Amino acid sequence: MSSVVRRRVEAARGFTFVEMVIAVAIMTTVTAAIFSLMDPAHGVFQAQPELSEMQQRLRVSVDALYKDLVMAGAGVDLGSAIGPLGSYFAPVLPFRRGPQAPDPPGTFKTDRISILYVPSTSLQATTSLAMQSPDADIPMNPQAGCPLAEPLCRFKIGTTALVFDESGAHDTFRITGVVSAPASIQHANQPLSKSYGSDAAVTQVVTVTYWLKTASTTSRLMRYDGYQSDLPVADDIVGLSFEYFGDPRPPALRKLLMDPTGPWTSYGPKPPAPGVDNPDDSWPAGENCLFSVEPTSGRSVPRPGMYAFGMPTETLIKLDAASLSDGPWCPDATAPARVDADLLRLRKVRVTLNVRGDGPTMPSQQVSFDVAPRNLNLGR
């Protein structure tokens, strides 16, 4: 091989080596860039299941609260007490009610709420006679469509029931027995607040309390059934609060007191007829927790305490702790289960939930929503 050819071959070989070095350098740079782009994507893929789980906990919590709140105050559709429960007593309370660890009367808590409503049910009837005592059996009128041998065929042992009358008195209890002759239901070891008279409503009821259970290892949204069971709704709910909004207008009489069917007022229980005294409360004759008797005319007028929210408007106003814990009290100030009369104004509840995130890459999430229970807004 001539020297000229040899030099050309060596030059070609040198040029190829330089190209290879450059190619390897380019490939290394591109590969590093690809990996740098893939690493954040890996973090996103890792966070997606955690984000989905957080949103699922929020969905479960919102769904449970909304379903019960929107039904709050639903009443019976048989007998003389037809209409929403708000025409008799407050069905939404800012505290825990029930036999297990109840809050004291007049309590206001921002992280718990109790709700009562009558579901779509055929377990509805009325009392036939006055009870002999608060712990006696409840005498009942037979239900339509039941055989003579089983006049209360739709009432079952273990059902949560509600008894109430037009004065605003009410009690919830578990049915412990059903008697056919004479027709009556039993509530052993659950004395009522009073001996109910004839024609009081008795029905199946849903009573629940939502509250936040906090511990060193976890925080849970809980649902209490108003009797014995506290069950978790969702874990890692670290914030729960309720705000209440109500009608600023005082209650008003809609019908004559002798009208046999309600509702007789814009909200709350009707007062006794003029000159008639209710022996179960401490109010004077013709009065109750919402209405007093005007001395000059003898007419029923709203109590002075029910004018606390200024000029009547259509705009809802916020009901704070002070307004919901200062009275007047229903049924009266001596009742063991007394509640502030302003709770009868309630028309809307605002719920705020906060679910815990997992570390700095997954912050906590918060959601707020309003619920206007349909049965508390029928007159608006």
Average predicted confidence as pLDDT:
86
Helical/strand content category: alpha+beta
**Shape summary:** elongated
Question: What fraction of the residues are assigned to beta strands by DSSP?
Answer: 15-25%
CA-atom Rg in angstroms: 33 Å
Strand order of the largest sheet: 1-2-10-11-12
Short description:
The chain is of the alpha+beta class and 380 residues long.
Question: What this model shows, in words?
Answer:
The chain has 380 residues and is of the alpha+beta class. It has a domain at 51-119 and 205-376. 18% of the residues lie in helices and 25% in strands. The chain is built from one helix and 20 strands. The strands form six sheets. The chain has a five-stranded antiparallel β-sheet with strand order 1-2-10-11-12, covered by helices on one side. A four-stranded antiparallel β-sheet has the order 3-9-5-6, with no helix packed on it. A hairpin with a 5-residue loop joins strand 5 (160-164) and strand 6. The longest helix has 69 residues, at 3-71.
